[in-house]
Design goal:
This protein is an alpha+beta fold. The chain folds into two domains: 257 residues, Transposase Inhibitor Protein From Tn5, Chain A, domain 1 (Alpha-Beta Complex), CATH 3.90.350.10; 80 residues, Transferase Inhibitor Protein From Tn5, Chain A, domain2. It is built from 14 helices and 14 strands. Strands 1, 2, 3, 4, 7, 8, 11, 12, 13 and 14 form a ten-stranded mixed beta sheet that branches. A two-stranded antiparallel ribbon has the order 5-6. Strands 9-10 form a two-stranded antiparallel sheet. α5 packs parallel to α6 and α12 packs across α14.
Length: 472
């Protein structure tokens, strides 16, 4: 890899500490090699058998833990957060299917198929920090979810009782609250953190606990619940979705959405409705079992698409937030912030497809988890490179590439042996990398996607290696 990547690894992981300088040095070396061969398995990411063997020993070493691997990256992410006035803290869970690895020990049960077949693998809950413009700043939290039993119709197999009636601290849902608590303890200077989550995080206890900590949330509502009660056990008379749908639009905006298919993106024209509400606790919650149960003041924002083009399903979001909203412009801003939640889906795509995590052939869940943490940092770096040019299209590409890397790109696509004295822009360099990965770059084409970017990056790494082998 080039000197820029080596410098980044040295800076990002300067404080890594496994209690042994040899392990620290090995970790940095492994990241550099894996970053240049992101789509390969561990065994095919290194040029020699000694390095392959050393990487397996590294993952098997009990001194190497998930937290110690990720700790320096989290510290660097917090430093990047300090330069932001507002950052979006996006949570989501992804699943890794290792059912084909029949000899792997300690795997969890991730889901049951339509024919009752249970898939084994690992579940990872990620927290990604991004700017309000969608530039990924880094990973703030990672936690694996242990699941040794599966539920059926709300009842956990092998246990009596209805799982839905249990307090949230006994459920997997507690992870959303735990992340908010962890982030609350971070020192981010004057940065305002806003936790952005999808419908899985729409439950009362998360809103309650975030409010008690002073943490801000922006969460998509999943159901048409009763609101604005005087007492929590009162019968509901006002329903969330109905109250918003029966109100007149207070403004309009257009958002750009990523979609599957040839177009990749589409624009949706949305009508905006917002209202202050209070969220009551569920009627079956009790103070003895679930703790304090106050009414939680929120603002509900509905973004609804009246007419969708090209057979797309009409969009209708109901967002719940504790952020102060006193104007239509502020409500529209929050809708645009929610569109950035898709960044974590793209990050997971880079991790699973671009970094080919599910190809791993390690023998235990512990080693697989360490491998996933390692690849997660690589996936973030790749994702960051694909988005950096959006921040400043005229920025120089030497913030990502060293002279050898951009020179090889320039010479290949300009069919020349000479290189210019002026460093190409980051935008132009990213297009060249994407073209190595199959992007055609026609005037009518949308910006390159992450697939062409990671394929191009891997090919560029191979070009650099070949050049250094041949030319020294």
């Amino acid at each position: 890899m080039g000197s820029v990547t080596n410098d980044w690894v040295s800076t990002e992981f300067d404080e890594v500490d496994f209690g042994d300088q040899r392990l620290n040095k090995r970790f940095r070396s492994i990241i550099i090699d894996v970053l240049g061969h992101c789509n390969n398995t561990l065994a095919s990411s290194f040029a020699s058998w000694s390095k392959i063997k050393a990487s397996y020993r590294f993952l098997a070493n009990p001194r190497v833990t998930f937290s110690s691997m990720l700790k320096p990256h989290i510290a660097a992410t917090l430093t990047r957060l300090n330069s932001c006035s507002t950052a979006l803290i996006i949570q989501d869970t992804t699943y890794f299917d290792f059912s084909a690895r029949t000899k792997a020990k300690g795997l969890d049960l991730i889901h049951r198929g339509s024919h009752g077949v249970v898939s084994k693998g690992l579940m990872l809950h990620n927290t990604l920090a991004v700017t309000t413009d969608g530039i990924p700043l880094g990973i703030l939290d990672q936690r694996f979810i242990d699941r040794k039993t599966l539920r059926k119709n709300g009842v956990e197999v092998g246990r009596g009782g209805d799982h839905r009636e249990e307090p949230v601290k006994k459920k997997e849902s507690q992870r959303w609250i735990d992340v908010v608590r962890t982030c609350h303890d971070f020192d981010v200077g004057g940065c305002r953190m806003v936790h952005v989550c999808d419908r899985e995080a729409d439950f009362y206890e998360l809103f309650r606990d975030a409010a008690s900590l002073g943490e801000h949330v922006l969460i998509r509502a999943t159901r048409n619940r009763g609101i604005n009660k005087k007492k929590r056990r009162d019968e509901p008379t006002i329903w969330l979705f109905d109250e918003l749908l029966n109100s007149r639009a207070q403004g309009r905006t257009t958002v750009r959405l990523q979609v599957n298919g040839r177009s990749k993106f589409r624009e949706a024209k949305l009508s905006i409705i917002y209202k202050p509400i209070s969220m009551p606790p569920p009627r079956k919650r009790t103070v003895n079992k679930d703790g304090n149960l106050p009414m939680v003041p929120l603002t509900a924002i509905m973004a609804v698409e009246k007419r969708a083009e090209n057979s797309h399903e009409k969009l209708c979001w109901v967002l719940l937030t504790d952020l102060p909203i006193s104007s239509t412009e502020q409500a529209i801003e929050k809708v645009h912030w929610y569109t950035k939640r898709w960044n974590i889906e793209v990050f997971h795509k880079v991790l699973k497809s671009g970094c080919a995590v599910e190809k791993a052939q390690l023998e235990t869940s512990d080693r697989l988890k360490k491998y996933i943490v390692l690849k997660s940092v690589v996936a973030w770096r790749l994702f960051w490179m694909t988005r950096m040019h959006q921040e400043d299209e005229e920025a120089s590409c030497d913030i990502v590439l060293d002279k050898l890397e951009w020179s090889l790109l320039y010479r290949k696509f300009n069919k020349t042996r000479t290189v210019p004295s002026q460093v190409p822009t980051l935008k132009q360099a990213m297009i060249w990398i994407a073209r190595l990965g199959g992007y055609i770059a026609r005037p009518s084409d949308p910006p390159p996607g992450v697939i062409s970017m990671w394929r191009g990056w891997e090919r560029l790494s191979q070009m650099v290696e070949d050049y250094q082998d041949i030319c020294g």
